[in-house]
């Protein structure tokens, strides 16, 4: 079913809910990768925050957003929050707060 073929709000909402579930699953995968990054950073002596990498990740997201017709400033804002949460996650691990 194409987006223009969605006949009513109930169907539309169901599609949005399903997409939200997929986004959460992707965020869970990202969290697992951040957990792995923290273990690698600990082993090689890197800090949680690497400013150049933060800017690279945010710029990549903004560029991808623009190429898909999304507002790059909005995506940059969301990604900065996402990256800050990831850095906090890594900091907790590197400071001994491990699951």
From TrEMBL:
UniProtKB keywords: Coiled coil, Isomerase
Chorismate mutase domain: residues covered: 3-94
EC number of the protein: 5.4.99.5
Transmembrane spans: none
Keyword Coiled coil: yes
Coiled coil: 9-43
Cited SMART domains: CM_2
Keyword Coiled coil: yes
Name assigned to this protein: chorismate mutase
Organism: Paracoccus benzoatiresistens
Phylogenetic classification of the source organism: Bacteria, Pseudomonadati, Pseudomonadota, Alphaproteobacteria, Rhodobacterales
